[in-house]
Amino acid sequence: MFLIALWLFFFSSDDFVRNDISNKINNLHSKASFMGKIARPSFNNDKISDFQLMLRMYDLFDDNQLLPIHKIKIYRYEDQTEIGKGYVYYNGTRPILRSSIAVSPLEAIGSQGQKNKWYAWDVIGTLFTYYRRLTDTRVVTDPIVTRRSKFRPQHHVIKSGENTYDIRVLAPIKVDRKTIALVEVWEDYNLKNAYFSRNSLRVQFLIGISIITLVFGLALAFSIAFPLRRLSKRLNRKLTPADLADQMANMSVAKLASRKDEIGLLHNNLVKLTKQIIRLFKDKEQFSADVSHELKNPIASIIAHVENNLDAENSNKKSALLKIKNQALRMNKLVSDISEAAIVDHEIVAKKREKFDISIMTDDIVSHYTDELKNSKIIIDVVLQKNINFNGLPDRIAQVLINLIENAISFSQPRGTISISLNKRWRKPLILVVEDSGLGVRDDMKELIFDRFFSSRSGNSIVKNSSGLGLFMCREIVEAHGGKIHVETSHLGGAKFIVSL
Predict the structure, then answer these.
(1) CA dist 34 to 94, 99, 171, 296, Å?
(2) Are residues 13 and 143 in the same domain?
(3) Domain of 302?
(4) What are the tens digits of pLDDT across the range 217-231?
(5) Which residues contact 226 (CB under 8 A, 6 or more apart)?
(6) What pTM did the predictor assign?
(7) Same domain, 183 and 304
(8) Last residue of a domain, which of 314, 342, 370?
(9) Cα separation of 8 and 6, whole Å?
(10) Pairing verdict, β 389-392 and 354-357
(11) Angle, nearest 10°, between helix axes 394-412 and 470-480?
């Protein structure tokens, strides 16, 4: 971008040709005015013929040392005659022969740039093609209108060839405020010669800067940018939801590990960080397993002893033991859910994703609950799109659906309606919707219900030994698959959970 900006600035800021042409126009105006003043006394005598005037003009202007101008004409002014078609008093383009003609070979246009073989690839010539178009828009004017020169000098800059301009000035010679003759002075301006003489050194300097910039840029790219890009590609390629733990373990790039600079330090620190993350996941999984094992055994023992003593006749003792049993069951369910949540966390990170038909899985789960509820007063309406393939963890996606259905059933007791739909549009997320005709969710709780251990159940919706981890795990699973879950108010009157994957 820097080089592009540099070359654009070079083109847009170069106004040499425009200024040079402007100076030449001013110079031609001065020459035309000077020659008009010299010729005016001869035109005051109206008794001499046009031929005599022509001879006088040649006497006046034929001395090269006095007036070294060869592109000049002086001709009689006629209102209906176009420029150059009147009687010519002096024609500087066909001077009287005064010396032998010397012939010398012309240099090729742009020879200043062509002599150096270093320009074999013609960089300047290529640039000139675009520069010429830009210059044409800046300097080219409309042609001279001869009638207007009767009152004041006129000039034009028009294209006379592919790379040349015709710079022409037409000035009146007046006697007693009447235009008698016209002085025409012109010059051919070769744009290519001017461009090469002006820009050869500048372009060489600019190319040198560009080459140096490219060399330093490539050096920096190979030493910094490319290694970082390789590391970034490794991260992008490896850190995907599928088999994340193994991929993090293989993130190291051998060529970067041996470097002693900041890039090597960054790489090694990232490798250390990933190893610590992997160890943290494993320690967390092991801790959850150990805690679950240590707590479940005494809880199971408590439940067994309580059940053995519930057969006793003492009603007070029986009531107390029943409360202890309920609390033990609740604790046992809580420990199981905590352990399950830890397993879910580990599988989300470590277990490999697989492609499966989520339509078939959803149909199987819904059919199971439909069979269970066929003798109840709860109706399940299902709308499923067929053949929807999804890449993820089938067991965990199934757990999300099960949790949402059981949640809807609990809030729809003793009678109600549950609606389940699954659809996928082209290039759009997969949408799973579970809604019920229960009490719904208040607006102030629509975010809180996804928090860990949160429960707002009351009345018929109370579920024994609920841990408040169901919706929390649903959100963790959905977000681990790159999706979102939120709750709205259903047209059935209850809650409407929408999962987009």
Answers:
(1) 21, 26, 10, 117
(2) yes
(3) 279-342
(4) 777 666 666 676 666
(5) none
(6) 0.43
(7) no
(8) 342
(9) 5
(10) antiparallel
(11) 140
